[in-house]
Amino acid sequence: MKMDSFSTGAKFECLLFDMDDTLYPMSTGINLACRHNIEEYMRNQLSIKESEVPKMCLDLYKEYGTTMAGLKALGYEFDYDEFHSNVHGKLPYDKLKPDPVLKQLLLSMPQRKIIFTNADKAHAAEVLSRLGLEECFEGVICFETLNEVEDSKSNKRILCKPMLEAMKAAIQIAKIDPKKTIFFDDSARNIATGKAAGLHTVVVGTSVLVPGADVALESMHNIKEALPEIWEGTNQLDSDSVIQPASVETVVLA
């Protein structure tokens, strides 16, 4: 589904993609495993009562954007790298398989393509590698991009989606024009913030528009049918005939 106003704007110059549950479906179970690992960390490393953990984990996620940001805001002290190692290090990455269809679609898009995730750079690299999409993106805006790791012991709050401040920081870091950028995310609240920041927005994983979304895209595999505007003014090559560029290392933008 698409809002009529979506196709009446300027030519698009950049595509900003969330990663988890956007580039691959939620049905992989990575999200659920991640929550399980966060709850385990809260019990074992932060000594939070087991009976309180599930509700607290979800409440902090809802209020602060990520459970990690919420724990920090409440005054819990922990090392960021240790947290990410515990939460992401034990994920069932083997459930993520190479996606050649999506790879060809991404490579055929003429715009700049950037990842914007709340996750750390190690997780982003692992996911992109498992999906076979490393060479499809110019760079990655991740946890380390928005938060100085050396400040993990300070009282400074964690910056993350769906904070408007985080969205504006990503726009500045990537040096993009929001009016000429499409933002893809599976989270309704991130989509709302993206729209508030002036971005064109696509909610992924559903056929129903959410507040702030210009387009609802059930699967990234349907992007060419749903958003032909991305390829406007380019030679309409079939995905099978896309010329492969030389391998380009995806770098963390800072």
TrEMBL record:
Highest taxon listed in the record's lineage: Eukaryota
Protein name per UniProt: Pyrimidine 5-nucleotidase
Annotated organism of origin: Rhynchospora tenuis
Organism placement in taxonomy: Eukaryota, Viridiplantae, Streptophyta, Embryophyta, Tracheophyta
